[in-house]
Amino acid sequence: MNKNELPIVVIGAGLGGLGAACQLALSGEKVLLLEKHNVPGGFATSFVRGRFEFEGALHALAEVGTEEHPLSLYDFFKDLGVLSKIEFKKPTDLCRSVFYDGLDITFPNERDTYFEKLIELFPNEKKGINKYRDIVFKVREGFNYVAAKEGKVSPLGILMKHPYLARVGGLTLSDVFDRCFKNQKLRTVASQLWGYEGLPPSKVNAMYYFLVLVALLDDAVFPVGRSHALSNIIVECFEKLGGTIKYNALVNRIIVKEGKVTGVELLNGEKYPCKAIISNVNPICTTMKMLPRENVSDLYKKRVYAPDIGPSAFTVYLGLNATPKDLGITHFEIFMNSTYNLEEQYLSTLRIERPKYLLASCYNIMYEDISPPGTSQVVLTILQDGKSWYTVSPYLYHRKKDEMANHMIDMAEDLLYPNLRESIETAEAATPLTYYHYSKSLNGAIYGYKQDLLDSPMLRLNSKGPIPGLYFAGAWVNLGGGYSTSITSGRMAAGMYLEEREKGGV
Ligand SMILES: Cc1cc2nc3c(=O)[nH]c(=O)nc-3n(C[C@H](O)[C@H](O)[C@H](O)COP(=O)(O)OP(=O)(O)OC[C@H]3O[C@@H](n4cnc5c(N)ncnc54)[C@H](O)[C@@H]3O)c2cc1C
What we know:
- By secondary structure, the chain is of the alpha/beta class.
- The protein is built from 19 helices and 19 strands.
């Protein structure tokens, strides 16, 4: 068969893989998408327990926007046909934050009013908060500039036009706070979204934090039908464009001839020849397990092993036989803090112990009939270091899992909902091992590598693989973890392949 007739294989139908596959299909390429599971989406999925269908992961989908205010994913979804098949709901606020001492704040989800809220709470820090706001938006503008240039921009060009991007690229969130304000309480309040990045202000790259903050202030949404509907619709659109998806297809090996990609082999021995591969599987497994070792340079091996792996999560999914009103639940996203000390909050994520920072999400606030009439769906989430769960003996695993779920329900009862336990009809918990089991993301990492200074968006591993014809897509590369960033990462991998092919490199 002529090489040009062969498909491009995308391994993994997580959002990174779906982004890549759809971008290629939109460009008229023949694409074969191979997914080990029997449903698409990776983390972007839902599951049923009793009479409840639980959202598996999503709280807020960023970067879609509206017809009047389109964001970076809007046109992509429109071209695919996704927008006409799904309805998105917008939350009424960014989040509510409650603290053990009674401080209780609701943050608006608009650019100006968010910062006005901070000034209202800390009027003496007005000057510093305004300076902070300017930095946040300048970084975002710089990011938009680079995105609009589709990566074709020189470091000097960035420095001249958007110096803040380069300056903040090397700073943690704490470094930026140091330049704006010292008040510890303000720093904690302004860092409430740190769980979305996986690292506290002392460690997280400020750029990641600002990109998420602005994305959530700019029209973040939730799909009616949950992530499962979103992933299914993306697949439907992909197939309509001529793409092929194969489920229960676990790729075991990438076949290489003369240093170049020539195909893949499934665990069951089936082989699929191809001209290029985009892998949505983490770069460590793709490089060290799927590729013949001799094809990977020592330098590249160091590159995939060098960054630390980011956090996983522990989640308790609760089906409650009471309405949000019965339970006194008024907000979709509530961050609960049992200390103002963010280092303590972070340290508790590294151990299997009662958490100090927890997110309680009631999906019925997003749309009422997400669970049967008279019930509600509440999900409690904390970050957890995946490694700490790998060392739990199999005999203790279920006990530890129950203990942690109980700690989280206790915390939610102590800080906000005293009678939560009484209303539980169905409960399920997911540990980092659960997340690893379903996604094969190492350590169950939900954002890929840690999003710290060494792995800022500018320094993170990009889509280019270790041999010609192999590319990466998803949370581990390019822009880091998250729904929109993983989809965009896939689109970037597809773009890189198309460009290299045009230049004759593949
Ligand atoms: C509890 C939780 C809450 C979250 N909340 C949010 C949120 O509110 N907003 C947000 O933006 N992000 C959120 N995230 C993060 C987000 O879900 C992830 O960063 C993102 O979905 C990662 O997508 P991915 O494509 O990189 O990887 P994955 O979703 O891990 O997809 C990888 C795919 O590859 C498949 N695969 C693996 N190995 C093979 C193989 N050998 N052969 C074939 N297929 C294979 C897997 O089955 C999977 O389908 C959350 C995550 C979790 C777990």
